[in-house]
Design brief:
The chain is an alpha/beta fold. It has a single domain, classed as Rossmann fold, CATH 3.40.50. A 7-stranded mixed sheet has the order 6-5-2-7-8-10-9, with helices on both faces. A 3-stranded mixed sheet has the order 1-3-4. Strand 9 and strand 10 form a beta hairpin.
């Protein structure tokens, strides 16, 4: 059974393809091995929810990079999706060195990295694309620690859906223990509680709280794990609402240069993708009611620019986490 995704997933996967192609190209003459880790491998069949077009998932994209190829690929996924993914990939890529590891990635990541320990000198990229706040800090920590100390860290591209977990945080302050435990495991700290308390008291708006959660994750990636750069790209749906951030963590100057360029391009392309999705949705709605117009009342909505993120991308370091003793820089 196929899984259906919004237009933003198509954009995200295209950005992944571009970066992986650049990643392998820049290591072409420097390394005989290249490792790709997909912490949430996904399922074999994915489709655009509006067009019904097939989408190549992250596993297929990584296996299709060929100039040069990744030499070792590991896809972590729970059952029954792991078996389905393995079966599909075995048929399409029978001679490639890849493995689909079944089970909770937060548990299986450690044995997976141990199996690759003899290659801890090789350029390594990890795609961490959960459906919610399902990634434990211990998993991110293990990825960051995988490489030898004299080599750049594993590059991590992490989907961070603050808006998704914020919906589970009650605004009356009575957060459920299971939700609190999940967030503490994800951040590796309970510093998120200061942001939550400020949201409950009204000191932070929902948008400000979302930004502070993103800032907290970036700050921990840089300050705790030692990444030099963390690049956040905010992704919007067809209504212009923020749905998640893609956070790229690297300590290699070439990595930060490439992703800066790709994020700059994405800021130009994503609005066009959103407009195309709006047009497709409007056409389907018109067909459903038997109305066909060239320029209708939806024109302003269809062509509206992004409400945020219109400028070219520039790296800005995270500020001290909300509620920390170190004052935040308030200069504009």
């Amino acid at each position: 059974m196929a899984r259906y995704w919004g237009f933003w997933t198509r954009g995200k996967l295209e950005l992944l393809r571009r970066y992986l192609d650049a990643f392998t190209t820049t290591t072409k003459n420097k390394s005989t091995e290249r490792i790709y880790l997909d912490v949430f491998g996904g399922q074999p069949e994915n489709r655009d929810r509006l067009t019904n077009d097939l989408l190549a998932g992250s596993a297929r994209i990584a296996l299709s990079i060929d100039d040069p190829s990744f030499t070792r690929l590991r896809f972590l996924e729970v059952e029954p999706y792991a078996t389905r993914l393995r079966s599909a990939l075995d048929q399409e890529f029978p001679r490639r060195d890849f493995r689909v590891v079944a089970g909770d990635c937060n548990t299986t990541i450690h044995a997976t990295l141990q199996d690759l320990a003899q290659l801890n000198w090789a350029p390594t990229f990890a795609f961490v694309d959960p459906n919610g706040p399902d990634t434990h800090w211990s998993t991110i920590e293990a990825l960051a620690a995988f490489k030898r100390k004299d080599r750049p860290k594993t590059e991590i591209w992490l989907l961070f859906a603050a808006g998704m977990f914020m919906r589970n945080l009650r605004t009356d302050g009575s957060v459920r223990p299971e939700d609190a435990d999940q967030l503490t495991k994800m951040f590796g700290t309970d510093q998120w509680r200061a942001i939550y308390a400020a949201r409950v008291s009204g000191d932070l708006t929902p948008a400000d709280a979302r930004d502070e959660y993103v800032n907290l994750m970036r700050s921990r990636l840089e300050q705790v794990l030692g990444y030099k750069w963390t690049h956040p790209l905010e992704v919007f749906n067809e209504h212009g609402s923020s749905i998640y951030h893609m956070i790229f963590a690297t300590d290699h100057p070439v990595g930060t240069e490439i992703m800066t360029s790709l994020y700059t391009t994405a800021l130009a392309e994503f609005p066009a993708m959103r407009q195309a999705a709006r047009q497709q949705r409007a056409r389907l709605e018109e067909e459903a009611v038997g109305v066909h117009t060239l320029f209708g009342k939806q024109l302003d909505e269809l062509t509206a620019p992004l409400r945020r993120g219109e400028r070219f991308y520039e790296y800005t370091p995270p500020t001290p986490p909300y509620g920390s003793s170190e004052p935040k820089d308030t200069d504009t």
